[in-house]
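question for whoever is on the cluster today: can someone run the full assembly for these? two chains, 645 residues total. i dont have access anymore since they changed the login thing
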Amino acid sequence: MNFALLKLHPRMIVLTLSMIVLAFVLSSTIGTVKPWGQIDWWDVLGEGGIVLLTILWQFFLLLSRPPGRVTTLLTVGLCCFMFSGLLDFLDEFFRYPEDAWLPLIENIPAPFGMLLISRGLYLWYQEMQVLNAQLRRREANVREHQDVDWVTRLYRADYMREQLRLQLEQGGRCCVAVVDIDQFDAFNRRFGHPEGDRLLREVAELILMNARLTDLVCRYAGDRFILLMPQLTFAQASLQVQQIASAVKHLAFKSGDMAVFHTLTTAVVEAAENESCNALLKRLNTQLAQKKVTKQELHGATVCHARG
Amino acid sequence: MVRPYVTLEDKFIPVQGMVACLLDLAQQRQLNQHKLLRGTGIFAEDLLRPEFYLSLSQLLRLLKQFHRLMPGRDAAFQLGHRLFPSPNAETSAILYSQNLTQVLRLLSCFRLQLAPLLFAYHYQHNGYSYLQLNDAVGMDEQQYQFVVELYCCLLVSASRHLLGERIPFCFEFPFPRPRHIYEYEEHLGLRLAFDRPSLTVKFAQQWLTHPLLQASQLRRQLAMQQVSKKAFKQTFIEMVTHYLHRHRQANLQQVSEHLNMSMATLKRRLKEHNLRFSQLQDRVNMQQAFHLLTVQGLSNEEVAEKLAFHDAPNFRRACKRWTGLTPTELKALALGK
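^ ran it for u. tokens below:
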């Protein structure tokens, strides 16, 4: 697990811990300890479980979110909820005098906390709208984080296959393209694989920038990217892929004090009526393989162009 | 007397090479090294010790951990691309060879140093070369597929490095079409067939004599002076397979006599590699039969005779038992691709 975000929340952690301490202090100063025989262990189990799970949720919340308004609201809300639960849990162990105020108010923080959580969830919804807009072109209507490629942070081929299958089932016009970086192997050998990974990331960004908001870009395999372009004619799709190729061609990728230029080999196909996902991908990959062969015959095996 | 084969526990695999490559890649993908090494019997502080070697079983466990922990489905391919050339004398000898024929000869000499997990038979027929690759250590299905991906990618990547262009290899795999077929297509090309009886790589024979980019006789000879002479040559499975290739239908007793060990020891040694004798014999015969039938195009009778079966119906029955297909169906399978 990655605990980096946890360090950014010192105030929230202090708040949670002080709430826990406060609950213990209040219960033990106001109440007296019950005899062992009078404790209802089923209640202890149930109420203790609620407290522990609430603390666990808080932990994961702080682990997964950077600080901000949403995080604060959710944490404080959960804290109030946990505080009530903890008091409830502790009164299984402590007997309070008849006129004590604590049992009367112990349930008040919980609904207050739930209101805060509800407000936080609403703001979270708004936040997700913003984030989803940022993720456009990287993601279609399904989110499966385990399918995201480690290097480029794009979705992997599995995700694209699924989206493509859905698109083909729906029918309607769509084009699919693959782009492949030329001489990526040679680049890796010369500049090392970490630089190769960085190049993949930058090229992925360029492709995203040149795609429409309704397109989906995924990493296919190795140095190959795949684009799903709904509602485009073949000519429009080809033009867009050309624009991507020319954008990459003009990218002066800096490796050390060198600027390295790259070209792409591309292939575009339009989905035919009732074509299966596999058939379409096969057509696409065959076209790309042919283009690679012709390119190699035309230019020979040139190593990537580098200029000092 | 020196044992003529290496066991799973013999320590002879240096860290430099595949292991270092693997650890490097894992680090780039931010895997936890402790997690990666857990259960492998390798300790991080050992890695830098001179004279530290891994055994085959340690290598297998490390690969298994690597496979399990690496994100994505391309771990084997990523590693395959990084393996060649590695900084050892055997690899240098290959790098400076004249052509692929010489490379293949060196590979068979230093197989355990260069590719310890698979061994190959090389056939030529009608202008094509066939490399039939076999499991040398007895892996489970999942790991076998991982290792096959790794070595096939290494073959493509290394030959491209040596020749400066991509050889159009044809691959036949003994497992079903995987879900991540796109990785195969990207790294190995589009000439792929699955569900075949054996793992075979086919390429045009002309590539064998194509001059290599860095060919240099002097540097190859210099490298050859550096290679370790008393190195292990083969695994146990490999040794028995070789014998079965030369002596068709040899039984357990004949093999154990030839190897100068008791039948019980032979069985036990095979069991260490998760194999039974009959399994191994069937595998050798099946691969031979498939090759003779589909590549050389012999008739059922001729194959039966070559493989020392009594008659063609007997062979037909055996074939059905090995593959679930009759010889005629096998031929059709090869033609139908």
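summary bc i know u wont read the tokens: The two ends of chain B are 50 Å apart (CA to CA). Residues 141-163 of chain B form the longest helix (23 residues).
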